[in-house]
Specification:
The protein is an all-alpha fold. The chain is about 80% helix and about 0% strand. α7 crosses α13.
């Protein structure tokens, strides 16, 4: 884990040495701020102390931003050959993956911390359910962790950043939209299975202030399986002459 942490710190410095981190922060705050306070929300008029509008827009904004964030994590290093050089050192594939995963998650955490002024503004409008707000942020972190892991898997199977972005987005669409759309049209165990696979149903459950063990297992399973698939992909690349 120490090596993974070193890789994470190196990656986060790389984000801020380039324009990646600044673009993510500016665009994320711009989108979330615009749709939370200026469009689609009349929070100032009805004096409703709620960050529901923010959590709804952040949910979709991060869905598109995270594949863009992760697409170069492994694809670019595959293309330039620096990944093979890195793996010649006494570093395991999982340590590399966990390091990059933590770096991306830290950047998302920084982006969410930058939205704390939203909360400060809201509490001045009225009484706020702090538990719901906390669960809203937890829901965004759980969702982001899942899509970061999926993005790393997509980035591990190609050396083309655009392909990595599209693959991550394609996989994400199933969890974000399709499973939830199919579930109501299915009966019995099949409908329950599709409903359980829908990330939106688990995200909505968490943001309502109910953190159930099934939701935690769901998000943890996506992260674990995605990173295992990514590790398997890297292992096959290493064996390829």
């Amino acid at each position: 884990m120490k090596i993974a942490w070193v890789i994470a710190l190196k990656e986060i410095r790389t984000f801020f040495d380039s324009l990646t981190a600044y673009i993510l922060l500016i665009v994320f705050l711009g989108f979330s701020g615009f749709f939370t306070w200026l469009y689609g929300s009349d929070v100032f008029y009805i004096k409703q102390a709620s960050l529901g509008a923010f959590f709804n827009i952040a949910y979709w904004t991060l869905f598109f931003f995270i594949p863009a964030l992760t697409m170069r994590s492994l694809a670019e290093e595959n293309k330039t050959g620096t990944l093979e050089l890195l793996l010649t050192k006494p570093i395991s594939n999982l340590e590399v993956l966990w390091g990059k995963f933590m770096a991306c998650l830290m950047l998302i955490i920084i982006a969410l911390l930058c939205t704390l002024p939203y909360y400060i503004t809201i509490i001045n409008l009225g009484k706020v359910d702090k538990g719901v707000v906390l669960c809203g942020y937890l829901g965004l972190l759980f969702m982001s962790s899942s899509y970061i892991a999926i993005g790393l898997f997509a980035s591990s199977i190609t050396s083309n950043q655009v392909v990595a972005f599209l693959v991550a987005l394609f996989i994400g669409i199933f969890f974000q939209i399709l499973f939830g759309m199919v579930a109501p049209n299915m009966n019995g165990a099949l409908g329950e299975t599709f409903d359980y696979l829908s990330l939106s149903s688990h995200y909505e459950a968490v943001t309502r202030g109910v953190v159930d063990s099934r939701d935690l297992v769901y998000f943890a399973s996506i992260v674990f399986l995605s990173l295992m698939f990514a590790e398997s992909s890297l292992a096959r690349r290493n064996k390829t002459p």
